[in-house]
Design a protein that fits this description.
The protein is α/β, with parallel strands linked by helices. The protein has twelve helices and 15 strands. The strands form three sheets. Strands 3-2-1-4-5-6-7-8 form an eight-stranded mixed β-sheet, sandwiched between helices. It is globular, with a radius of gyration of 23 Å. About 45% of the residues are buried. The structure holds nicotinamide-adenine-dinucleotide.
Length: about 400
């Protein structure tokens, strides 16, 4: 099939490589011209996709990147994988999705299968995509992406894929496409079910992470080890699933997607109380971490040298979107500390460079990448660990 994928970020490039590996001819479309140029040189910007794999698909003409909308013409399948962030009021921002739909409207005049993989609330495919693309007999399906960047165990191939369509023909065509590179396809009765399943999965994680973050605060006040309690509870063979505390939640999914559900819940008059409370708890974690650090060093961090170790939102990846490290650093600085950060996967961030991991008066570990040595962290006088990976350190 001729496949065009709009958006070549974490999701779009992953799907592009999956589709190319199944023998499809893939066009990776992106508005970011610099990114397009790099991709065409065979340089991947995503952990888990090797440059050599990309280069092989380019040389065998199974993949090319483009910012030319006319290249979308003639596709059998168009997959939309663009950002769906929150605006400044923490409400859904569908502007990227609408821009992608406008591109299709302007340039694609013959019937095409259009699949949305971008995460959004139930009703998006029907009301925000199909309703804007009338006049051509396109087929529409929703297949929300579940990729977990950096996860070595579960990838595009072996993670079951949900498909819901606006017509049975759309479901059949979408299934034909995805089963060429995914092991398990699960058809659901409507695109709304597929869309809702995706945000419910992420809401489940957000709420459970908030629960364990709140529990960590209770356990510390009671003088009990949170992580020992979690390990003990996890010995129950049924009815319990362990989540671990941390400095908050980050990335494009867990801190964002639940607010899409809360948004539609508001519209139908149901208050999404768990989501709102979970947001409060998770967004409050950086302040809790800094409060504990201040208490841990005797009541003041003014003038002290601090290194924040790991600023991406999770280990082994360079993604800093919504990372709680930003608030941790800002709050430490507000209290007068001299803060640098170390994360060689991230390198440059917010106009600052990753500092060498030297001994400081305080080290605060937000994310622990494998390459970072525990001894180098422990060289600092006081270590506060948000990850449970530094033996003997104070932390959550
Ligand atoms: N990152 C994840 O782990 C993950 C997992 C599952 C689902 N999702 C969802 O997938 C969607 C995409 O997320 P991502 O992480 O790949 O985002 P990303 O920011 O990594 O990539 C998005 C890409 O889309 C491009 N883009 C923006 N507007 C465009 C347009 N109008 N036309 C063409 N390209 C455009 C950007 O330049 C960027 O390269 C979001 O809805 C997200 O919630 C993400």
């Amino acid at each position: 099939m001729r496949v065009a994928i709009i958006g070549q970020g974490y999701v779009g490039l992953t799907i592009a490589v999956g589709a190319a590996s199944a023998g499809h001819s893939v066009l990776g479309f992106d508005v970011n011209k610099g990114l397009v140029a790099k991709l065409n040189e065979g340089a991947s910007h995503i952990e888990g996709i090797n440059d050599s794999v990309l280069a092989e698909f380019i040389s065998s003409h199974r993949y090319s990147a483009s910012f030319e909308p006319t290249d979308l013409v003639g596709s059998d399948v168009i997959v939309i994988a663009v950002p769906t962030p929150l605006n400044s009021e923490r409400n859904p921002d569908l502007s990227y999705l609408h821009a992608a739909v406008d591109l299709i409207k302007q340039h694609v005049k013959s019937p095409t299968l259009i699949v949305n993989e971008s995460t959004s609330y139930p009703g998006t495919l029907r009301k925000e995509i199909a309703a804007r693309l009338t006049g051509v007999d396109h087929l529409f399906a929703s297949s929300p992406e579940r990729v977990d960047p950096g996860n070595a165990l579960w990838g595009t191939k072996n993670t079951p894929r949900l498909i819901g369509g606006l017509s049975q023909e759309a479901v059949i065509k979408a299934t034909e496409f995805y089963e060429s590179f995914c092991d398990t396809i699960i058809e659901v009765s409507s695109p709304e079910v597929a869309e809702a399943a995706k945000i419910f999965e992420n809401t489940f994680r957000q709420v459970n992470i908030a629960l364990v973050n709140e529990f960590a605060q209770i356990a510390d006040a009671l003088g009990i080890s949170t992580r020992e309690v979690i390990e003990a509870a996890a010995t129950k063979p049924y009815g319990f699933m362990p989540f671990t505390p941390g400095a908050g939640v980050g990335g494009h999914c867990i801190p964002v997607d639940p607010s899409y559900l809360a948004h539609v819940a508001d519209q139908v008059g149901i208050p999404a109380t768990f989501i709102k409370r979970a947001n409060e708890v998770n967004l409050g974690m950086p302040a809790y971490v800094v409060k504990r650090v201040v208490a841990g060093v005797g009541g003041s961090i003014a003038g002290k040298s601090v290194v924040v170790v790991g600023v991406s939102y999770k280990p082994e990846i360079a993604d800093v979107r919504e990372t709680p490290a930003a608030a941790v650093i800002d709050l430490l600085r507000e209290q007068g500390a001299n803060v640098v950060w170390h994360d060689d996967l991230v390198g440059t961030w917010r106009g600052e460079q990753s500092a060498p991991l030297a001994a400081h008066e305080i080290a605060v570990v937000v994310t622990k990448h494998g390459y970072v040595s525990v001894d180098a962290i422990n060289a600092s006088q006081y270590v506060f660990d948000c990850t449970g990976t530094i033996p003997g350190a104070d932390g959550i």
